[in-house]
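It is worth pausing here to work through a concrete case rather than discussing structure prediction in the abstract. The textbook approach is simple: state the sequence, then state the predicted structure, then interpret. We follow exactly that order.
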Amino acid sequence: MKPSNILLFNPRATDYKARIPNSVLQVAASVEGLYDWVIVDGNLEADPENKILDYLRTGQFGFFGSTVMPGPQLRQAIPITRKVREQFPGITTVWGGYFPANHPGVSLDSGFVDYVIDGPGDKAFPDLITALIENKPVDGIHNLVYLKDGKLVRTPKVNIYPYDELPDLPYEKLNALYPMQQYLGKSFLGSRTIAYHSSFGCPFKCAFCAVVPIYQAKWNGKSAERIYRDIKLLKEAYGGDAIEFHDNNFFVSEKRTAAFSRLMRREGMNWWGEARIDTVDKYSDETLALMREAGCRMIFFGAESGNDNLLDFMDKGGKQTGAQILRFASRMKQFDIIPEYSFVLGWPAADEHESLRQVEAEIDFIRRVKDRNPATEIIIYIYSPVPTEGSEMFKKVQSLGFSFPKKLEDWLDPAWENFDLRKNPLTPWLTPRIVDKIRDFEAVLNAYYPTVSDVKLSGFQRKAIRNLAALRYRTGVYGRPYELKLLQRYWLKYRQPEKEGF
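Step two, the predicted structure:
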């Protein structure tokens, strides 16, 4: 009989600070009490490959599962999964996460990934393990993608499970493998910051978002009471004193947010989450004031663009407009909650002139946001396509000559890693001149308005870099800011929240 033990791998995602590996911990919860499991965390292991191979050499493991995000996690996920297949061909390999869910074909064609979980794996993963152990068919298991006779097979999809019906995460067992204190890092929110998921999915269909193909505009969240119970546990058992909610959209329900805030008022913990502007702008003043009283320090908003036509083109949904983005930045000032706006520049365009015009308009709009509320944090991304099949945006992307790598190993090219961090575009409509314009403006903006989230930046450093950038920012002369980039790289070691986390 096939061994039933499961090894779950969390590949390295960052060089900066490890966070609670919620994705693989969620999978572990789904098999807790059914099968024995271990987690290997690439963020905390100097040599995760040998750690994994040592486990597998015991002969007790029949399954290897890995979560895989685009970008840095592929650097470990690809070679280690390939090595598992080479040395232990009888072990079943399963990938889940944004990358395989959006690119199942290239993952499975590699020859070393047997199954892809496309969507929530809370039921799919344990059902798959049981079916394979008992030698039963898998075609009735939801959310699976696999190859059969060389053809891609997708089983029926279940996008969301009621979150409150799912089991608690096994923090105590994780703590036995890796002390939880290693995951509670210092941030501008607190000295021991908890990473936590309170919901699945998002009820919108933005054409540039990797969440859409997985959850298909579905959302479900834990109750305020259950979130509070978990946070209390993490605070009392492991010393957590602040929270980063890593939900795709924490603030979907005002009722839930208000209930959670009422519970959190007594705890004295700062927290951060992600939201849509047009959703939170519907919140009452009473709820926003309550959130701040309960410790809400900053909210990440996908502003994306100040151009209403572009917002429509990207299927942003809802009622977000450029005017609302500006007005909402002003509104947040009265509640002392920092709005963190992300903008995506470099959308598909017919020619260089149109691309340049779009970028210049967005730069002007970002300056207007800062005029309305200087405390607004600005995160700048360069557009990277997502395979949202059927969307007008993806059709245009393809018509302009863009295509993804055809082989899994090609994703290890550093250019593709940076592509998925939305830092190094490989899109045919963006010329080096336009990319330089975006990067130069970003350098000046970040120097003139250093991010509040950089806890290592001293007051003197902030003042020095701001003064040096002042003339450039005020006059709009952004080109070739070598002096600022050198300082940001070597003296300030400027922190990038969009790459390092918040």
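Step three, interpretation. Residues 31 and 226 are 21 Å apart (CA to CA). DSSP finds 21 helices and 15 strands in the chain.
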